[in-house]
Amino acid sequence: MIPIKNAREIDKMRAACRTAGRVLDRVSALVRPGISTGEIDQAAGELIAEEQCKSAFLGYRGFPGNICISVNEEIVHGIGGVRKIQYGDIVKLDIGVIRDGWVGDTATTVPVGVIDIAVQHLLNTTEESLRLAISHALDGGRLGDISSSVEDEVVANGFSVVREFVGHGVGRRLHEEPQIPNFGKKGTGPRLKPGMTLAIEPMVNMGGSAVKILQDGWTVVTADRKPSSHFEHTVLITKGEPEILTWREKTLSK
Q: What DSSP character marks residue 55?
């Protein structure tokens, strides 16, 4: 069953999601050539603590990082370590925080300096697919409307969606019902209702959709080692337009 939040619970979600957005903005500003992913993770942990919150990821099913940091061919669930960021990289930052028992979850892909034009197109397409998906997060709509809109945009631009990892409901727990694939058929799936809070997160590969998990048991990479992009917002279904709870001025502003 998909949880429906009441007004008080939605206010708690807003606070958690605003915090996640602030932390993501501040961590994004740290990404530069020469810094290690481990240094970014440590700084993120300190920023989360400054907000008097906890990481929603640290210790989750044994995950060892404060946030997920995934570079270039790494899709999601990357662990901060000794790898140093290089000019021309793309760095995926996925941040979840727990505030007052509620989870805020959001992600972005940060280009480091000037990146390849084809990779920039990948980022633009992924972000646009998220915008389109959110526009379908409407009272009375179907979950498949969200999923199909992502796939349609991605495929039309010559890229592929990751199929093994999906978006999800979010609230008191990091992962709630429903699962939200980035592929599907319009008009199918559960009906959307006000009070649902959904983490919508397109993961888009430049090459094929196949993935592999590295020996650390967490880091997901593209099987063909081509770049991948990831953007995510937590969204509230309302009686009107969807509300982006993790809104950041630098995101979806085009």
A: E
